[in-house]
Amino acid sequence: MDDRPAIKTDSLTKAFGNVEALRGITMEVRKGELFGLVGPDGAGKSTLMRLLTAVMEPTSGDAWVASHPIRQGSEAIKEKIAYMPQRFGLYEDLTVMENLVFYADIFDVPKDVRPQRMERLLGFSNLTPFTDRLAGQLSGGMKQKLGLACALIHTPEILFLDEPTNGVDPVSRRDFWKILYELLKEGVTIFVSTSYLDEAERCTHIGLIYEGRLLEKDTPATIKLKHAAPMIEVWCENARSAMEALKGNEKITTIGIYGDRLHIELKDGNFIPAVIGALSEKGGLVKEYREITPSIEDIFFDMINAETAIGDRERS
Amino acid sequence: MTGLNNSRAASPDAITVTVAGLTRAFGDFRAVDGIDLSVLKGEVFGFLGPNGAGKSTTIRMLCGLLLPSAGSGTVGGFDIMTQTEEIKKNIGYMSQRFSLYDDLTVEENIDFFSGIYGVSGDKREERKEWVLSMAGIAGRRKVITRTMASGFKQRLALGCAVIHEPSIIFLDEPTSGVDPISRRRFWDLIYEMSSRGTTVFVTTHYLDEAEYCDRLALIYRGKIIAEGRPGTMKKEYMAKEVIEVAVGNVVEALEVLGREGFDVALFGNVIHATVDGAASAQPGIQKALEGAGITSTSIRTVRPSLEDVFVSLIEVS
Fold first, then answer.
1. Are A93 and A134 in contact (CB under 8 A)?
2. pLDDT tens-place string over residues B25-56
3. Are residues A278 and A132 in the same domain?
4. CB contact under 8 A, A235 and B268
5. CA nearest B185 in A: which residue?
6. Is residue A310 part of a domain?
7. Is there a single domain that holds both residue A127 and residue A244?
8. pLDDT band at residue B5, thresholds of 50, 70 and 90?
9. Which of A161, A299, B39, B197 is least enclosed by beta carbons within 10 angstroms?
10. Residue A89 belongs to what domain range?
11. Does A275 fall in a domain?
């Protein structure tokens, strides 16, 4: 079996005028990985994806997708991949079925395999009852699923998805992820960018990108192990005021708020009783707490904060 | 300091938005189907629902941008049927698309909104400086809006929407497509406004954000199907219990448990199984996993999150 990586990049750089959107990205995505690219807005996520899908040329460095170099191989690459950009080009005045047929034509999908493939795509995207509805009249979640179905009308080796679940409600998000896992089982390599860090946790590998640089690329478990720190998760009556109450507490490194819970990173594991004591004292706010390993979101915040601090020091 | 959830008097004059039987039909489709709502002054009110449930249509009616087909109500004391012009002048509205002029500079956008809302003289300069500092973009006044990252655009859009210091602000999915760091910052701003007495009516798909609201309403297929404080909703509307299953291979475990008839979903990187009784269901889950040769790291009953409640309410409906 061919064990060359699905995606390989070497010092990939892209500048727009004097703004460096990507600053030397070197990484590999193996076949069959579900790779999640996470990073704040403007970090370079979409730019990286556009380079890898051969929509755009790099300024320097190189990359190979399905073993084809991105610089010369754009046509060869397009045959091997499917790409769903943030705004997928659905024709709002065409029906669901007409959109699928349109993309089947574009990708030269043989006529004899179409009925079966369309039935399957409509089935797993739950769009079968809506084939005659105009795409413009679908809800946001349904549009995303139709976009995915259109992108998958040919069988790709690698699927690129740029923030596919933005603006999609939790029920539709769950459906969408089920579809991704189905594809993964069939051996498709998936490269997905997301700003939902709970989604990033589900990927087999994660890349953290910030200001055009890749800060980390590994499995979620390894990243967590590497950044392990004593942390407690606390349920409080009012998480916001509890957070205020702990501001300036010297036993704490960082606090993150997650709905009705706080994730509190401690300078030392022995500080747990003291911190819980401090919280309870200021209003008896603690309902329950437990020790946890920092989540990817916690680690992400820590890393970005550290990077920002370094950046500030360099600037001043 | 964020003083939310503190005792807010519920006297009738503390109500700032109230509607009854609010309905909007497009042809024979009822996008909003007879909803009743009331929002108190200074409250952060979260309006939740899946895509296409009627959230944006409701907001447009409350903002005086769309006339209801039936129903009655007032926003900031003005009638939603007859005083839409007054409503528009007295509220702030930030749509999903941020409603900024992409090809104008930051400063030009602020000036434009000042003009629309009749903010003039010294007040105009004072408000401009406020927007720039609130959004953290004081150094970017001459920057073309299009070139800014979405977190900045979003805060600028919020600033422009409240340039005239409205008493009520409607935010329609303001954090959609915005990264987690900017989202946290945005919610700090919402709290700041709420603590100064501004009423905030907000829609979101991020259920962790819904936890930060004082009260919530869940709309589905044009009807309100649940309402209350986040804590109350979790108690009142969640008849079932949630078991969290942590395993190495979630994909396989999800399939196995699904096949055994459990109602399972991914939640971050763990599985949430929604069951009638946790104590009786737990051994079954254990057995199903063991039977398939899957080792679990932990199986435990957890507090349902708002996402669990939301999904289960929608599935029941």
1. yes
2. 998 889 999 999 999 999 999 999 988 889 98
3. no
4. no
5. A257
6. no
7. no
8. very low
9. B197
10. 7-224
11. yes
The amino acid present at A294, given as its one-letter code, is P
Q: How far is CA A188 from the centre of its chain?
A: 16
B266 with A202: Cβ contact below 8 A: yes
User: Are A139 and B303 inside 8 Å of each other by CB?
Assistant: no
Answer yes or no: do B51 and A142 touch at CB < 8 A: yes
Alpha carbon distance A160, A174 (integer Å) = 19
Both structure tokens of A293: 């390993």
Q: Are residues A119 and A30 in the same domain?
A: yes
Contact (CB, 8 A) for A233 and A257:
no
Question: Do A102 and A130 share a domain, yes or no?
Answer: yes
Please, are residues B158 and B174 in contact by the beta-carbon 8 Å criterion?
Answer: yes
Shortest CB distance from B208 goes to which of A238, A258, A301? A258
Instruction: Tell me how close the Cα of B209 comes to any Cα of chain A, in angstroms.
Output: 6
> Cβ atoms within 10 A of the Cβ of A309, count?
10
C-alpha dist (Å) from residue B180 to A3, A30, B175, B287? 36, 28, 9, 38
Contact with chain A for residue B269, Cβ under 8 A: yes
Tokens representing B147 are 């070139």
Task: Report residue B238's pLDDT band, with 50, 70 and 90 as the boundaries.
Answer: confident
Contact call for B5 and A238, based on CB within 8 A: yes
Domain ranges of chain B: 12-233, 238-316
CA distance B3 to B5: 7
Q: How far apart are CA A281 and CA B38, in angstroms?
A: 35
ipTM of the complex: 0.74
CATH number at residue A273: 3.30.70.260
Name the packing angle between helices B150-161 and B180-195 (round to 10°). 20
Are residues A124 and A260 located together in one domain of the fold?
Answer: no
pLDDT in tens, chain A (316 residues): 567 899 999 999 999 988 899 999 999 999 999 999 998 878 899 899 999 999 899 999 999 999 999 988 788 898 899 998 887 788 989 999 999 999 999 888 899 989 988 988 888 788 888 999 999 888 777 888 899 889 888 879 999 999 888 877 888 888 788 888 888 888 999 999 988 888 888 899 999 999 899 999 999 989 989 988 999 999 887 787 888 888 888 999 888 888 778 899 999 999 999 998 888 887 566 888 989 888 888 888 888 777 766 655 554 4
Evaluate whether residue A67 is within a structural domain. Answer: yes
Question: Nearest CA to CA, how far is B52 from chain A (Å)?
Answer: 5
Nearest Cβ partner of A41 from B151, B173, B184?
B151
Task: Provide the residue type at A83 as one letter.
Answer: Y
Assign a CATH topology to domain B238-316.
Alpha-Beta Plaits (3.30.70)
Number of A/B CB contacts below 8 angstroms equals 118
> Which residues on A lie below 8 Å from B151 (Cβ)?
40-42
Rounded to a whole number, what is the distance in Å from the CA of B160 to chain A's nearest CA?
21
Any idea which fold B12-233 has?
Answer: Rossmann fold (3.40.50)
> What's the rounded Cα separation, in Å, for the pair A196 and A206?
12
